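Narrative of activities, Objective 1.

The group set out to show that a structural description can be obtained from nothing but a protein's sequence at a throughput compatible with the screening campaign. Below is one input-output pair from the validation batch, recorded exactly as produced.
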Amino acid sequence: MQIKTMLTQTPFEKSEVITGSHLLHKNVLSAMVLEAVDIENWGEPEQLILTSYFALERLTLEEMEIFFEKMKNIGISGIVLKMDRLVSEVPKILIELCDMNQLPLIAVPMTVMYETIIFAVLKPVINHNANLLELYYQTRQELNKLAPKLPSIEEMLHKFKVLLGHDFQFTIPQKNQIISTDTELTGYKIINSIHLKNEKFMSFNYVRHQVQYSNQANSPNSVVCVEIPNLENQNYILTIFENSKELNELDYMVIDNAVEFLQAELLKNYTIKHSQFLKRNDLMIDLLNTRYYSPVEQEELLTLVDLNHFELYQGVMVSLYDNQNIPSTQISLVLQSFINILRGTYSPIAFYSKNNKVIFLHNIKNERESFSKNELQSLMDQVLSTHNTKKSSSVFCHMAISGIHNKHDLKEINKECLDTTKMMHHFYQESHILEYDNIGIFKYFLETDSLSDLEKFIPKDLAKLRMENPELFKTFKVFLTENQNYVTTANKLFIHPKTVRYRIDKIKHMLDIDLGDSEQILLYQIAIRLYEFM
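Output recorded for this entry:
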């Protein structure tokens, strides 16, 4: 309630505005009788101070100035002075200090009781709070009626619109998904933004955006957005379109209820989806590891994960890594993007996810429908380019593609994906796609699990070089990896090309190797690769 409205009440019939008539628009939320000047301990913003001047009459000028400055800083709305009790005339110093500190000063007769003034101030506040409480329960009742029906986002937004009278929009930025009660209002451009101060009944963080539309004359020029806290690794944003005037306290009561309701429904959906995910994960583990007792049970498992359409199957394993220890939540976001994009590209497909890896099983009619390395490369680039920002460009991906098998060899698909991933983990510290059918001689060691025998395939002179002169061994390894290019080898090792040439000449003498002999070079390349497994 504003002071000018308050002055129309019965206790103020014979009141007089002594000073500050231009400040009567100030709000009053409470009233307090001044008994002591320690106002910093009990004063509140938008409070009306009632006094007979008793607590002030013994103060020095300096103490009075300090007291009034405290009132100004707290945000006191004004002072009511009760006349003819201790003072028959308003003290000049009181008028001056009220003027100086922008405080309205109102004089009332001695016959006016403090209780009637306090009641006059509190009555509209009490009525307002009662209206808020009634609105709160009405809103909750309406939303509770909706909850048992398991409403969709669209149904919830339309219910919010009925309750508030404003259009709503629900946004999932990571999916570029927008759901709105009026699709014509979604195409706006944000001009500027301001974070709103959390007032009473505002439990969430609100941001008001000034917006602009390209060709809609009667569209709202501002929207209020609130981010909805949730358990998933993505943001949900609720937007309210403001009409001719800004949202008020009653509106935020409804919106806060709407956000809480959305939160609860999103949590419910997340719980259901997570339960389904865990169940599906368990089924995929059983399939890929042959944890079933009969072909009939396998058929049932394949049907449950919707992979029992064709005779052939192929797998692809996606593994994510980073070299900057970025938050695990960001890795999860990238992994979820791979899940979304592969599920949207290939069908029928199911997946099993654990830690930073996910293996997809694709049911295909023939070999022509198998995974395309080029297509997977394009999908990989699309996901990583979206998530690898300038601030965080350390996430890289390995994709391992299995061979094609029938339903009786699903365990082989799992093993081939794991083995190919192991190969890439040793050889590639950047994003890469590798097909199991193209790993050549390394299949022998992976399939026979004979990594302990690798030393037999290492030439003795190379083993001696690695043992006695690891720096030369490293130079030789990089030199072969860089296709015998002295300049790129120097760049990799941060040394001069002449130093590389000197070292290679020394290595040629020690190994008695002809760099032009492709058979010899292949032998040493394989041997150096084998060291990665030892």
